[in-house]
Amino acid sequence: MTGRSLRSGASRTTRRLALAAALVALTPSACAKVLEVTNTGSLEEPQLADPALEQFLINGVISEFQFAYTSYALWSGVLADETFADHPNLNIRDFSLHTFDDGNSTDSLVYASLQRTRQAADDAVERIRRFQSATPATRLNVARALIYGGYTYVLLGEGFCDAPVSLSAPLLPTELLTRAVARFDEGIALMTALRTEAAANSASATVAAAQDLLFLAYVGAGRASLKKGDLTQARAYASLVTDGTYERWAYYSSNSVRENNQFQSGIRAALPFLGMQPAFQNLNDLRVPQPATPRPSLRSNPILPPLKPSMFSGWTPTSRAPIEVSTHIRFASGLEARYIVVEVDGPGPAMLAFVNARRTVGGKAPVELTGQALLAEFRVQRGLDFYLTGQRLGDLRRYAAAGVDLFPAGKYPTLAEDYGRMHCLIVPRSEKAGNPNY
């Protein structure tokens, strides 16, 4: 036994010395080769100058937007009055309580994803234009990057107290929304010209693609103008959406976690953490269904995790279906354009007819209202139609600026604490530390 142990120890010593000798023998160049890692699935920055990768750039913009959009829709709803989070994580708890600061990781996640999308869109426009291609496909791609970038600026403007762009000084929401409109306008100009040329050449597929992007830009420009208080422009853009059935979706799948609809992470688990706010409970409205009974949360409190609302794929008036990882979200529509026109026109017979039409969709009887009461009901219908789509935070901020504060107040649903007064997302500490102009 003893001899066998000694031989074993000598053998280990010999191996160690051999390894040490091998390491000493490595030259600096050899070390460099050892440390080199090749990722065959990645692209180096210079490769992005290749015109053959144009569609790769655009797909990247749309992918980044869809990830950022579901993150924003989820957490902006928590900061508004749509949902609340009953989670033991202190960052999530403080965010949901509206008492967070610039060190909050939940807030930082939303910020980072939106800024990545904004940069990807701006970068794609610049790179594709360098290709100097005037083909219809390239012009469509430039417009796509401009318009998806415009929507990203909209979300930054609606959700954040302020935000820098590419290490700029902080920009107020009105400036961010103005930049959004500028991108939409540029996309509109490109697609208007392309549609005219394609129609003259009987290129029906290009006409249809250009028109689809025009509607997407009109809705976005109308939304941005409405949120920054330019009502005349908001109505002008929205009126150009002549197809009331128009819609644009953000798509999700089970292919990877990044491609998941992020709402399901707070809803589908055995112990969910995302519950419907009291303001959206027990409304008996088909567009915002709720579970028949509460479920225990991560903190063992009874909560009502939201089911698929009407702007989510797979919703039907009687479905009462859960939100899945592959549930898509409608983020722009002819319905939204109609809401903008009706709101700008103000309370009157047209608004009453519209409100009652939306109530019918929700399974409710018509009402007879005028003036401020009609406006209040209009806001209710808007909240129901766009539940969990990222619209609500921007709406609550503009309502509050006009003297109608609908943000949650008083006791938190599952805590013995009162809500704070943080009503907008904030630039994280990491950005402030690394931005010399902030």
Written account of the structure:
- With 438 residues, the protein is mainly alpha-helical.
- It has a domain at 53-242 and 423-434: Serine Threonine Protein Phosphatase 5, Tetratricopeptide repeat, CATH 1.25.40.390.
- Helix content is 53%, strand content 4%.
- The chain has helices spanning 2-25, 28-35, 54-79, 90-97, 105-130, 136-159, 173-200, 204-227, 231-239, 334-345, 349-361, 371-385, 392-401, 429-434; strands at residues 83-85, 247-250, 274-276, 295-296, 302-303, 329-333.
- A two-stranded antiparallel ribbon has the order 1-3.
- Helix 6 (136-159) packs across helix 13 and helix 7 (173-200) packs antiparallel against helix 8.
- The longest helix is centred in the middle third of the chain and has 28 residues, at 173-200.
- It is globular, with a radius of gyration of 26 Å.
The shape, in one word, is globular
Termini distance? 71 Å
Which whole number gives the mean pLDDT? 91
- Count of individual beta strands: 6
CATH architectural grouping of the domain at 53-242 and 423-434: Alpha Horseshoe
Structural class: mainly alpha
CATH topology (fold) name of the domain at 53-242 and 423-434: Serine Threonine Protein Phosphatase 5, Tetratricopeptide repeat
Q: How large, in whole angstroms, is the Cα Rg?
A: 26 Å
Strand order of the largest sheet: 1-3
